[in-house]
Amino acid sequence: MKAVVYKEPFKVTIENVADPKIQHPNDVIVKITSSCICGSDLHMYEGRTAAEPGIVFGHENMGIIEEIGPAVNNRKVGDRVVMPFNVACGFCKNCLGGFTGFCTTVNPGFAGGAYGYVAMGPWVGGQAEYLQVPFADFNCLPLPQGTEHEANFSLLADIFPTGYHGAELANVKPGESVAVFGAGPVGLMAAYSCMIRGAAEVYSIDHVQERLDKAAGFGAIPINYDQANPVEQIKALRKGNGVDKAIDAVGYQATSAGSSAAGGEQDEVPNIVLNQLIEIVNPTGALGIPGLYVPSDPGGVDENAKHGALSINFGRLFEKGLRLGTGQCNVKQYNAYLRDLIIAGRAQPDFVVSHEVSLDKAPDAYVKFDRREDGYTKVILHP
């Protein structure tokens, strides 16, 4: 089958790789209809992880079940399904507690597994024609048959639940004010989720104008941090006050004002967003941090950053009595509910999708997405 294969920093190619096979009675093989390029893929693409050449990318996958293992009970050939990026067993202690992003079965020696991602287990990615899905009864979310809502449903694999997870980590409530740092795909979904949850004011902070325009399109208030300190901008709009809650949808590759938006050319300040969250949130508020932070970053700006050690104003955090939540999204906690919101017409997250291209065009799409060129905000690949 054809697949997107990582070769070296800033280079992926389309290659023929082995077709996936049923390896366990609980497996299914899914014929991929949509697989998204994620901002998290760019960390590997840019050489900012320990990813080895040869890995097949793709953790945001949906398609049609083509083959099932003999122990699969609740899914059948022909079912249209979307898979959480978390590979999970459904029966370990963490999965039973709802923490499917930290499954202890699927990636021995580590809590958590994912398709096509470094250090997240042996699971081949789905930016390809077919995908092996383990524990299929648990991992395959059924969808209405046909092709309706294809782009909307594809976002259930990761960014819509992850954005919603940011709002959940911050415990966003109706009537509250929220600052969402980052207006990439996850940041836009986090701001959109805050609106769904009834937030009164949502500020979207970024410096890529196309992204800020998308945020403004659903009612968020755009803040361009190239123009001035975003904390000061928000306080000026709020007559000196901060906000109730804040979300970090940027992560460890945060950049300074005036920095290039292109991957590999940014002036990075990995702790800047964390400290801005602490400053902007009012006393007794909460921070949600779904943005990715890693314990090892080969391209870190200094020795501490290379080991995931960042300087934050913990004294200020403590003084203000702030609470914070972190960690990757447990997609299974949210994906069925968000699917039903889409079906009911109450959520249409596909506004974030800027481009849909064939799998063969993936190498060019990676370049443009990484460089934030030609309005590339979110890309869906179709084999």
Give the key terms.
Rossmann fold; 22% strand; 26% helix; 383 residues; alpha/beta; 13 helices; seven-stranded mixed beta sheet
* Alpha-carbon distance between the two ends: 10 Å
Q: What is the C-level CATH assignment of the largest domain?
A: Alpha Beta
Proportion in β-strands: 15-25%
The domain count comes to: 2
Shape: globular
Number of helices: 13
Mean pLDDT: 96
CATH fourth-tier homologous superfamily of the largest domain: Medium-chain alcohol dehydrogenases, catalytic domain
- What's the SSE pattern? EEEHEEHEHEHHEHEHEHEHEHHEHEHE
Class based on secondary structure composition and strand pairing? alpha/beta
Task: Give the oligomeric state.
Answer: single chain
Q: What is the second-level CATH architecture of the largest domain? A: Alpha-Beta Complex
Helix content: 25-40%
Kindly provide the radius of gyration, computed on alpha-carbon positions and rounded to a whole number of angstroms.
20 Å
The largest pleated sheet is described as: 7 strands, mixed
Tell me the number of strands: 15
Residue stretches low in confidence (pLDDT < 50, at least 5 long) are none
CATH structural fold name of the largest domain: Quinone Oxidoreductase, Chain A, domain 1
